[in-house]
Structure formats: C-alpha cells, structure tokens
Design a protein that fits this description.
The complex is a heterodimer of chains A (303) and B (389).
Chain A (H helix, E strand, L loop, with lengths): L1 H31 L6 H17 L4 H35 L7 H23 L4 E2 L9 E4 L2 E4 H23 L1 H11 L1 H6 L4 H27 L1 E2 L4 H15 L4 H21 L5 H15 L14
Antiparallel strand pairs in A: 1-4, 2-3
Chain B lengths: L1 H19 L14 E8 L6 H20 L7 E8 L4 H13 L4 E4 L3 H13 L3 E4 L6 H4 L6 E3 L4 H15 L4 E6 L3 H19 L4 E7 L8 H10 L3 E5 L2 H13 L5 E4 L6 H7 L1 H4 L3 E4 L9 H14 L6 H20 L4 H10 L4 E2 L2 E2 L14 E5 L5 E3 L2
Parallel strand pairs in B: 1-2, 1-3, 3-4, 4-5, 6-7, 6-8, 8-9, 9-10
Antiparallel strand pairs in B: 10-13, 11-12, 13-14
Classes of the chains: A mainly alpha (303), B alpha/beta (389).
Chain lengths: 303, 389
Amino acid sequence: MSVFFEQLLNGLTIGSFYALVALGYSMVYGVMKLINFAHGDLFTLGSYLGYTVLVVGAGWVTATFGVWGGMAVAMLAAFLGIAVAGILLERIAYRPVYKAGRLPLVVSALGMSIFIQNGIMAIWGPRFQAYPMTAVPKEIITIGDIRITALQLFILLLALALMALIYWLVEKTTFGAAVRAAALDKDTATLMGINFRQVIFFVFALGPALGGIAGVMTGLNYGRIIFNMGWVYGLKAFTATILGGIGNIPGAMIGGLLLGILETLFAGYVSSAWKDVFIFLVLILVLIWRPTGLIGEKTAEKV
Amino acid sequence: MKRILLVVLCAALVLSLLAGCASPTTTPTPTSGGVIQIGLQAPITGNFAAEGQWAKQCVEVAAALINAKGGVLGKQIEVVVADDASNPKDSALAAQKLISQGLKEVIASYGSSVTAPATDLYDKNQVVSVGYGCTAVSLTMDKLRPYFFRTAGRDDTQSEFFAKLAVEKLGAKKIAIMHDNQDYGKGVAEDAMKYLKPYVDAGKTEVVYYDAITPGENDYSAAITKIKQLNPDLLFFTAYYPEAGLIIKQARQAGITCTFVGNNSVPTPEFVKIAGNDAIKGALMLNEPMPQFLTYAESKEFLDAYKAKYNEIPGSIWAVYAADALNALCAAITKAGGTDPDMVAAAMRTMTDAKGITGSLLFTERGDRKDIPYYTYVYDDKGELSLYK
C-alpha cells in the first residue's frame, strides 16, 4: 500500500508541473484563442534564469539567504523575469499580427518558440546545465515506509497554493470576472467597459510567469536543464490542457494533475515503456466522450 | 511602426533559424586543388551536444596532426561539419547536406538511432561513412551496407561481457534492466537478456525488472519506485548519459542502494555533472578503453595535442573514435590513391597496418571494427574513474 501512496505522490509532483505550465496555455487560449507555442520555451527560460541566479558569484545567493531563501529568490527572479518576457512576447510577436487572423498568429508563435529556444542555446550553450547541489535542500522526510524529499513536498505545496491563488483570482474577484467575460466574448466585454488590453496584459504576465516558476522547480527537483526541454513539458502540458478543457482554468489544473497521476500509475503498475501510448489513448477516449475536454463548457466554438 | 516591427520580427526569425543549423566551415569545393574534404556529421546541439562538440574538437585536432605531417597524398585535410541535433530527423537532413556538397567520405555519427537514417542515405549515394558512437548490432547486421564502417565496437560484445560480470563476478541474484526503447539501449538490453539466459536457466540468477523509460523526460520516479519494491541486487542501465544521470540520482534519493551498472555511453563528465559525486560513488561502468587509459604512442601524441588546445582530455571514447574514423579514412585514401568511394571502401576492408589512437584500425567485411576489448570501471567519491579489479 505504501508503494501506491509513493507512486501517487510521484504522480502529483509530475502533475503539478504539468498543471502549472498548462495554466499558461489555457489562460492565453481563453482570452486570445491562440495556442502560445512559445510557452514551453518561456518555461525553459525561467529555468535558466533561476539557474543563473543560483550560480552567479559562486552561489552568492544561496550563501547569503540560505538554501530555502536562495530558492525563493531564484523563483521570484524567474517569476518577474518571465512575466516581463511574456508581456514583451505579446507586444513584439502577437499584437502586430493580431488583426491579421489566427494563422499568422500561430506562425508568429512558432517562430518565437524557435527564436527563444535558440536564444537560450546561444546564451547558455547547447550542453546540459546542472543546478548546483548546494542550492538544494537535502532533507528526506519519512512517514512510515514512504520517503519524500523535503523539496518535493515543498514544490507540491507551493504548486497547489499557486493554483488555488489563480483559481481564486479568476473565479472570485471582479477582475477575474472581467477576464472571464473577455474570454467569453471580447467585443461585448469591451462594450461593457472592460479594458481588453489590461486583460491581455494580465494573462501574458501571469501565465508565462507560472511557467517560469515551474521551470525553476524542475531545475531544483531534477537538477538537469537543457535549452530544448520546454518541448517535452509543453507537449504534455498542452495535452493536459486539452484533457481538462482548453480555455478553462480549473480544467487545466485537473487535466495536469490527472495526467501526472495516470502516467505514473501506469508506469508503476504496467509498463513505463508504454505510458505515453496509454496517456494519449486516454486523451482520445476522453475527446470522443467529451470533445470539449473533461470540464470544458459546450460552446459553439468555430475552431 | 507596424512595418518596422514586422521587419524586425522577420529578421529575428531568420536569425534564429540560422542559429539552429551549424553551417559548414567552408564553401563546397570537393577535392579540388590542395585539399581533401571530409565530412563530419555530429550532434553539435540537442541531448548529445557534449558528445558532438568533443567529436568536432577531436576530429579537428586529428586533422591538424595529419596536416602538420604533410597531409594525405600531399593534400591538406579539411573538415566540413554538419549538425544532426541528436535526432534521426535532422540526421537525414545533415546527411543530405553533406552529400549535396559532393563529399565522398564522411564521419557519422553519435547515437545508433541517429546514425541509422544517415547511413542509408550515404550508402544509397555511394558515400563512405564511418560511424564513431553507434554500437547497435543492427547497423552492420540487418543488411549489408557496402559503404558503412565504424570505429566503435559492437554491443553484443558488451552484453556478453555484462552477463559474465553480473553473475560470475558480482554474484547478482536479482537483476533489473532498464533501457530507453531506442536502437542502442534496447539492443544492449535484449542482448543482455540473451546472454543472461543460460544463467537464468541454471537458476543462478533472475531478471526481476525489464522495462524502458522515455528519454528526454525529467521524472523517472514511477519506474524507480517500482524497482525499489522489487529490491534487485543490481540495476543495469542501457541508454545514454543524460537519462543515466537522472536515474542514478533519483534511485539513490529513493533509497535504492543496489549496484548500478551503466553501459558504454554513460561514463562521461556530463553524467557526473547531472548526477553529482555522491550519487555515482561506487557505480560500475562498462566501456571500451576510456581516453585516459589509452597507452599507444599515437594516443599519447593525440591526447597531448588535444590537451594543449582545450586544457582537458576528451570526455568520452566516442569522440576519440571520431578522430580515429578520420585516421582510418586517411589511411584508406592513401592506400586507394584517391578519394573514389569504391576504392576507399575496398581499402578500408583490406587495410592491415593502419594504426590509430585506439589501436589497429582493422575492419571486417561488414564494416565492424576488429578486436575491441571491454573493461569495467568504477567511480570514486570525487567523480573520477579507475579500473575495477
């Protein structure tokens, strides 16, 4: 039984990464009806920003603020840095072509994905980088037979807290209502006095920033980062978004967590070689049963 | 304003695409005047970027050594590099690029799955290609490729060596084998099963875990928790170093203390960097002779020249094999008296006295290297390798 719980924890950890990245896809899609292909690469950029903060000056940040403080600084730096990057991305690559229709927008997104990826490669090099071991807490918590690292627990709790915060922000506040209204119908929302630019600003700052934090968490938890890692996470997070219902905030969270757990349990009890086959089979079945995703609303969407 | 932005955007796109492909160092002028051009297809970017860069550096050092001695047939050697980005799709593109530049001899590449599509292209276009980091048995055995050779050994030798080591020397009763479902890793794992079978039939050992992971991911905790529960004496990992580093790190973190054996693509500085010194202490590595343990006169000359330029020795044997691929091609071109691919391929098969950095460069009829020994190495707590006694 303890093995089952350990696998469940493993799944929740992977799932919370997927969910955080999926939130960014979903928020942007909800408002702009655009699949932001550069999102996975912003996640990587966040990871590299965190890495830079932790290695600069031979680990000065960790030495000054302690291991946990250093981690917080790295995450904050990535959060702010990627928020700015997200806003810039919208300004440079999406706003000029927004009126030209969807296809130019998607092409622009793909171009930015390649641009950011190669930019990271040009700055940090094409080889693997490793987060410094000294910047990561080593404590291991044992509950009965279950072993979990303190870091894993921290990541899990922080990810859940962030998700709860976003949920509250979007579903319970007036500004969140404006975001949802803009997602539902941009033109009517604008007529009702909602500042659409502000909404776009919000989703392009917060969505990528969450991905940036997830990037630092990945680096801390697994140690190894590389310029093209955004692709794998982007793909899985995108799958999670579709699974939960694209454009839907709780859908992205549930999709991400569910994907992580299903993947882990299948890998743990059946075969890890076939887990992706299983995941995509589940996705297909869900889409046959509910074409709009698990909790996506049925709208007359012309995609 | 909008137009300027668009122009900037287009420029950025073009630039980023250019950055994606490492362009060859020279313009195409095949075998004219005083140079012989040799292609090098290597993973300059992507998961195996470290291997690709070492290979490039090794080949360039080897070319400089040859050129300093007067070149081949009185001509200087020039290396044309193409990046295969560590994946089969770009591998085919890189091969096309070198072929369309009119090169007749190329060195290609690292990774069996990456090399496979390129070898077919080279073979079809009658270009002699020499693999350096591709050890899957299938490359030479699934069909005859008359223009393909490799300076690396073959994985069945490694798997046979492993089975003997695991059961007879280490006395492992419960073995876990993990591969990555690609040509190379799966090949080693399947052969290991084949060579373990007699021991399993005799009741000396059993394989408690045999499964694959997906390369390129970060979290292998599901597979690791499963292995932990099965409690094996030995975990044999048969795939590349980026995943090996994560697997051993996550396994030690999860409290798995069993012997870890990594196959021949694992022992590199990158593996140490990813896993950390604590996790890899005592880990056993199977490999053909590592660069730091080479003892020939040619190897000393090469390693000294490399060290003088880069202040370290190559991180893996595969990069050194890339240099030896160049040495083999040069020896064959000298013997054939020209770069005609048919004559060079025939010369490769019949060479008897070619010496390289890693010993004699002799090839079988199917293009495999002859006489490659295997050794076991062990990591100490400083991340250094030594021979395992």
